[in-house]
């Protein structure tokens, strides 16, 4: 592709017409023609610039592998730069270390272009083998020079990488020579001409600078291309702790500080000498977590913690005073964000999930089963082929257990030492609460020197974009690569830093946004300063936080720690109910009301979710705190429905006002244009709005509500036929069931048309299995899933309601065929859960258990003797000591369904079950300790709102059954 052909291809591939316009405006091009002129000019300019350096490739030698080709490119280009920095020549080990590491880096940059070039040649010379390509082309000086002339951006990237690295190491060696005496005295390491350098995995900033390990004959020392004032300040906080804690002393790392660079002790992971030392380690971890909370630290992941005997040692404190929220919260979600980013979760020490890793990378939560999530490029070489495959999880993360204490050859993870962590955290929190003034004095002394790093995007995001930009299609002209990087970065939205973020990525750096503690300015990579005089400085914001801290904050943070550790995992199994129903409902509603967050006429709750960890046998769940979404399932629509029926059944205007606050928030901030926030589901998405509007229609039907409803219905009409989720929870079946229930109340042509689209989409996605019936495949699990919420039973129930309404023979046949297929997954009257790798007996509950499995059978078959086996098993649940109270997978949801089928379908077997459950219910009272949990879930299907609604429904049979989308 010549001139504009590749440019046009890249524009079409990565940019919409709107984005192209934004791109031209952003970089101040008058029009596309001016951009094209500059495109050609910049390409020619770069080729001319490379010409002199290409001469270094003369006297090219034969190579026998791709790796040797990369090595020869690297060594030929490094030779001239070594001559420019003569202080490196006398350090032979350093020179060798530079070449070794550069060869690896350059090889990774070259890989894609070599593979592309080979396949391009092979398309012209079909008998070309890899061996002959290496021998006849990569060993040919003229061809190699021509290759880099065709890809001038590639050559420029390689040359720049080599030049910057050698220049940087030369600067480090100057610092070694200047500081050698003090280094020897402080760190007991002698740095002579035999020293070497080990390249770290740290990100490059500010013209390719990154931390290094300097190796002497016996010891090592860490060099950082920045000051370590942050570490010194932390050390003074540790000294304050040690001064006031005579039982446990925190160790400190030796530091030598210079204004623009620094030296740190190389900490080695050592085993503990006793189990008491292991306990001490975790007490001290609790103390460190508390200190880091006071200092608003972040980004303390597994590589930043070293277990040195009974002492946890932090080796990188670059991100102190982070996430101090300088902006006034515009939305209620901003308020929650402010809370979370100022909590113990922010430090990164406690268990968490990271966007780019499947497993936990926190300092405490990480363990041996740690895999990389992002794809790793691998060069696949065969006799006749050369390709790169990106294999996810191909390499295990290099995990050395250095952050976990070891005793007698065994790693001791925190799971058995949580009480020690809590004790250390609590005592240290109290200590600094009493010593606020001394803490502030320490920080004041460093206010002019502390640099705050602001992580405006994950560094892995930048790294991934940079790596992808090494594709050969972006290496023929500078503007091709610019266009690609812009297209990726623009997806995150425009910020004042965007130009400079792009510039850093193009230069091979990870963007570095920072500020001084006593300023109200932000800087990016020393290129630009952004000042806002209307904002107060970071130091004042931090002081405001410290002055406001109290015993209440200790309880909040300790509660988050306990949940994060899976220790205080209070669920609705702990919520024993009912004494006097009205009193219990009032108590639960008071809790929900006390936990709401209201800001600018918006309302939400801090929602507690848990991630399921299948790999880790010891640690089953991990905390995930986030603002409540708008969904019916566990979001604001569900809570609104609960308050609506509280109002209607109790005739209490406080409940009415609380309902209207949620409803108006939902209506005022509904934006269908932001389609990524919505799926079509009733429980999970837009269908929930339609259900809410129809439930409240007898009492409230405004023009605004009607307009939103019409917009949603029109949108759903376009999306139903594209839906592949299909199920009750998030897909077509849920909409079908809802639309049929609405149609029963008020038939109309438009609704019937939507019903037809739903049925058509379900039938189009039906899979026939010869002789075994039919089934639907889960779009998530990629196989048959049984059960009501996510599986075939829910879809069949929706079709059964449709058949009951319209009497369609084909639908009855379909239900029979799928029921036949379902029954092949049953043994001795019991179905098996097909979601896991191994089949296990299903539970008894509504969502994906036995009760849900029976729903469509009552409509189509009526009661059968065989079902008594199911009821006998259901009755066994009454004898369990702990049964969850929730609607989704608890006894209240089951009771609601028993009564529905007993009243509406005369299923007499449910009569005795209702009696037994009611007897069980009357014995339960609220466990008050459960309501001490700061973050108990308040959602509808697995939270307190659902408990309230379930209790109201048992008192008031006229409340529609929301589990079946009744009206």
TrEMBL record:
<dbReference type="Pfam" id="PF13575">
    <property type="entry name" value="DUF4135"/>
</dbReference>
<dbReference type="GO" id="GO:0031179">
    <property type="term" value="P:peptide modification"/>
</dbReference>
<protein>
    <submittedName>
        <fullName>Salivaricin A modification enzyme (Amino acid dehydration)</fullName>
    </submittedName>
</protein>
<dbReference type="InterPro" id="IPR017146">
    <property type="entry name" value="Lanti_2_LanM"/>
</dbReference>
<dbReference type="Pfam" id="PF05147">
    <property type="entry name" value="LANC_like"/>
</dbReference>
<dbReference type="InterPro" id="IPR007822">
    <property type="entry name" value="LANC-like"/>
</dbReference>
<dbReference type="InterPro" id="IPR025410">
    <property type="entry name" value="Lant_dehyd"/>
</dbReference>
<feature type="domain" description="Lantibiotic biosynthesis protein dehydration">
    <location>
        <begin position="151"/>
        <end position="512"/>
    </location>
</feature>
